[in-house]
Give the backbone structure.
Amino acid sequence: MKFKAFLKKKNIVFSAKRYGVEAMSAMAQGLFCTLLVGTILNTLGTQLHIGFLTATVLTIGEKAYTIGGLASLMVGPAMAVAIGSALQAPPLVLFSLIPIGYGANALGGAGGPLAVLVIAILAAEFGKLVSKETKVDILVTPIVTILVGLGLSVLIAPALGKAADAVGTFLRWATEQRPFIMGILISVTVGIALTLPISSAAICMTLGLTGLAGGAAVAGCCAQMVGFAVMSLHENGLGGLVSQGIGTSMLQMGNIVKNPKIWIPPILTSAVSGPIATCLFHLRMDGAAVNAGMGTCGFCGQIGVYTGWVDAVQAGTKSAITAADWAGLIIISFLIPAVLCPILCTLLKNIGWIKEGDLKL
């Protein structure tokens, strides 16, 4: 009982909600503010020939960094601090997570985000245990937090990274072998994750969902965001269209809890658009994997696909960006969910499963 009281005093709560929902959702914000924003700035600078966005602002070793490059470089620390904030870590613990995030992400390799998620949670909770328990808190708390965090980074980050990378490699391979079935499964699963209060972006980044698997993930996310935005347009107006269509379909979670049937049209739409993306248009996410889980949020999914095209052209593996490429991206991202979701919603209204006001934000 005393230990439980101590944990309560330290605000340490062992729950799926805190670690799987709150921490992961915060982690996605850290990803967005660094890696995604950095990718967007680099893409804008390169494609629009904006000088200050393509100029080198810092060189570390022999590697030159632009503004966007520096933002992307800080993804590990940003994710760790975001996680610590979600866990309501005190300041000395929170700031100590900065080097931990960098170390865990770097040592985790392709699965760095998973390493950051696990290690930042453990380091933050250990730091909270000792926080304000001594008269030299200014020394004890950051030292304990950093030693635990970086120690775990050395010990387990590489293994966590390899595990996440192995899962991602399997999904990419499976999608190449069975593009129809895996297109459905990945599109539906990642799309559902995007609307749930968890991070589809973090999941895609953690598993390294690129290639056709990443394209299926983009399709699923767009089905949810554009689908909900368009089928609720008459109830939520232009503001709802924008907030869901380029913001997040998570805004509908409250309504989904009240009537889960409103989720059927976007889920069925993702089951349709996923295999169309993989089998017909061969839509690939060869940009940063995190973009696969963003859908139309800030148009990050589309920017990621476009960035992959540009990289492939520069590498010589793709001759040019064609009209068919653009048509596939537009049809998968916008047209299918904008047309199919409202049709399915109308059918469900006709049988009484969805009623007026069920989609009102």
Q: What stands out?
A: The longest strand covers residues 58-60.
